[in-house]
Description:
By secondary structure, the protein is mainly β.
Amino acid sequence: MSANVAANHVVLFHYVLRNGEGQLLDESGESPMAYLHGHDNIVPGLERALTGKPVGAKLDVRVEPADGYGEKDDDAEDTLPLEEFGDHPPRIGEQFATRDDDGHVLPLWVTAVVGNEVHITFNHPLAGETLHFQVEILGVRKATAEELQHGHPHGPDGHHHH
Length: 162
Ligand code: ZN
């Protein structure tokens, strides 16, 4: 059974992602990517471009930073004491998460470790980048009740539990 891409459907697709200079950033490789449409699993610009498209569609999608990983915010840097990271010293580029005053999860990335200070940024590594996606839609199916509850897909057939 196949349907067009719509909210509350799991979409299976292959993609190649390049930045504004044409450099390869990421690709799906052998196993396609699965996401739950309408649940913020992928960047807004790509999700919008995929809406309504049929299985088999091949798309070239250009996503501006505001519809991708956000504009780069130069004030989004901070330093944290090393001891907050526990026994294992963080690696450069490693992703952590904290919560803001309202309890929202805020991802952060380590940019440097200097003495007992860890330099971090709240900018996603691809913030400020224009994203070029080459996409091929391989499958669309209705999400299961459990997937809708979790807000993400459970593998290509919906039976992968975790
Ligand atoms: Zn789940």
